Automatic annotation (TrEMBL):
Alphabetized Gene3D superfamilies for the sequence: 3.30.450.180, lambda repressor-like DNA-binding domains
InterPro entries xrefs: Cro/C1-type_HTH, Lambda_DNA-bd_dom_sf, MLTR_LBD
UniProt source species: Streptomyces armeniacus
Pfam families: HTH_31, MLTR_LBD
Superkingdom classification of source: Bacteria
Alphabetized CDD domains for the sequence: HTH_XRE (cd00093)
Protein name according to UniProt: XRE family transcriptional regulator
HTH cro/C1-type domain segment(s): 31-82
GO molecular function, one term: DNA binding
Length: 280
């Protein structure tokens, strides 16, 4: 059970994170402190501002492992601080048998510097951990997604899909690669209960997933050239690279355009449009 000290720790760490360091605009009215507002922490962690308030005031108990992990990530905690936050929440920190979700400060600094490039970080099960503003502008703001909605396998085989354009052939290959990647993760982390639950729910709700899973489909996500249908800027064709972080099994998805092309101009426009939407 979370203690009052859990709320005090969240508040203390929230006060030390400058909004611009978290990819948020520094302006937006008078600030009583240099740190994050509760609403900003809620946005970064993917929870409600009311829930952050109740946690800080000691009126909410039993935050889930996923919520504690998201708060630790949004607060940019060190590994030691993250462990302490889990202990204050009455939770055991995820061990080596679970899918890693910890974004190191050095990886976070790298993401902070990619202010004009769409970047998202996924775990080994293809659950979205963090997406920067250009990525949200390009692919749609993911901050309101909860649970399975944040998982790329679920969104593409059960949910509404994404803005990426596919031919029937490319879609079949893409789906097989997603399922193959998930199979690899399930074999690597057999004790991860959240991952086992995801696979079970995909089997129940996704006919295409069940077909691929039962057929033993294998594959993996690789670099590709993708066309994204943006609702305001139209189609933009970009290079999509998937980088694996050694030692953590995280996947960093990066979208870029060749300089001087129409696609580069369109991507720049999308980034500006998205920034206006997010800060307006």
């Amino acid at each position: 059970m979370a203690t009052a000290e859990f709320g005090r720790a969240v508040r203390r760490w929230r006060d030390r994170v400058r909004p611009e360091a978290a990819g948020l605009p520094a302006g937006g009215g008078h600030r009583r402190a240099a740190g994050l507002r509760r609403e900003e922490l809620a946005l970064l962690a993917g929870v409600s501002a009311d829930y952050v308030t109740r946690l800080e005031q000691g009126r909410a108990s039993h935050p889930s492992v996923q919520v504690v992990e998201a708060l630790a990530r949004a607060l940019r905690l060190s590994r030691t601080e993250r462990t302490h936050l889990f202990q204050l929440a009455g939770q055991a920190p995820p061990g080596p048998e679970t899918v890693p979700a910890y974004i190191t400060p050095s990886l976070q600094r790298m993401l902070d510097r990619m202010t004009g490039t769409p970047v998202a970080v996924y775990d080994a099960s293809w659950t979205l951990l963090v997406a920067n503003p250009p990525y949200a502008a390009l692919m749609g703001d993911p901050s309101g997604r909860r649970g399975n909605e944040r998982n790329a396998v679920w969104r593409n085989l059960v949910g509404p899909g994404t803005r990426v354009r596919h031919t029937p052939e490319s879609r079949r290959a893409f789906e097989a690669a997603l399922v193959g990647d998930l199979r690899t993760a399930a074999a690597r982390y057999p004790a991860d209960r959240r991952l086992r639950r995801l696979v079970a729910e995909l089997r129940v709700h996704g006919d295409r997933f069940r077909e691929l899973w039962d057929s033993g489909a294998v594959g993996r996500q690789e670099a590709a050239r993708k066309t994204v249908d943006h609702p305001e800027a139209g189609a933009v064709t970009l290079d999509c690279d998937v980088l694996t972080v050694a030692g953590s099994d995280l996947r960093v998805m990066v979208y870029t355009a060749e300089p001087g092309t129409e696609d580069a101009e369109r991507l720049a426009l999308i980034t500006v449009l998205g920034t206006q939407t997010l800060t307006g």
